[in-house]
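Notebook p. 47: complex prediction with 2-amino-4-mercapto-butyric acid.
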Amino acid sequence: MGKQMPETATTFLTHFLQHSGGYGVLDGGFATELERLGADLNDPLWSAKCLLTSPHLVRRVHLDYLDAGANIISTASYQATIQGFEAKGFSRDESENLLRKSVQIAIEARDIYLERCTKDSWDFTETGAGSRRPILIAASIGSYGAYLADGSEYSGEYGDSVTLETLKDFHRRRVQILANAGADLIAFETIPNKLEAQAYAELLDEEGIEIPAWFSFNSKDGINVVSGDSISDCASIADASKQVVAVGINCTPPRYIHGLILSIREVTDKPIVVYPNSGESYDGVTKRWLKSDGMIGEDFVSYVRKWKEAGASLFGGCCRTTPNTIRGIAKALSSKTF
Ligand SMILES: C[S+](C)CC[C@H](N)C(=O)O
Ligand SMILES: N[C@@H](CCS)C(=O)O
Ligand SMILES: [Zn+2]
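Predicted complex, structure tokens below:
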């Protein structure tokens, strides 16, 4: 049995939401924004490659999202794994330091942003007294499928040889490092199946992780998570873990979000986080995005208020969404007519 979560951690997100008008604005697609700015992500490390080759670009993307109105930014560690760095010839120590570096860059960006706000006196809240809007850093953890670098976080089929223990062993050290690197919470993202959710829940407990986490699943039919496991079963695992302070959906076409919020709300009272992708689909072999039918891009901004009514309270974008998407979301949610 792990350590008890301190009270400050269990109420952490509730307090944050109270100070932010009842909702939080996440950032948008991180890797795909790096790509839009010129980074080449055709690599098994995908966006984590930029921690090596272009940390300045990583910092720029964080700043662009903060400028767009995000108050929760996630680190460039989605596909940063010790195993992935070691495969590139880095030592264990170097690999662990690269994980820490992803959090350091996000902290640096937050410091620069807040310093700028103080200078320009831009960003004081209405209640005033000089208090600035709180900004949280979420350490991103992509699934085992993300590490496989073949897009298999969109299938969740890991085969029979991958067990609960395999997944716990795979993620253990990375979770420990990111939890102690200065982030405010952990974002377990694009979780494709129930087994991996269970592995994360057990790891949080066994390792006595003291920062809170959210669990975010992905779906390609609006009913189940991508592996075919039921969203209710997956969300129930998140609900049962006291370290998990929010549960939701990311990297999923916008048209499925509303129904999935309703399904999640049936099994948990925890805050619901949603950050859909553009609606395009990913080809893991060519590492390219394919246009698909239905609502794409910034069109989904107009649905955000409906998603809030359905019970979600944290909103952002995933792959192929941009700072413009986040600007639109922030504007839609702050609008007085709401
Ligand atoms: C969320 S997917 C677009 C991330 C990239 C994938 N793991 C790959 O390496 O191809
Ligand atoms: N936080 C990651 C999620 C990819 S699905 C990113 O935006 O690149
Ligand atoms: Zn995504």
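Notes: Confidence is low (pLDDT under 50) at residues 1-5, 124-130. Strands lie at 24-25, 72-74, 136-141, 185-191, 213-217, 244-250, 272-275, 281-283, 288-290, 312-315.
Next step: compare against the earlier run before touching the bench.
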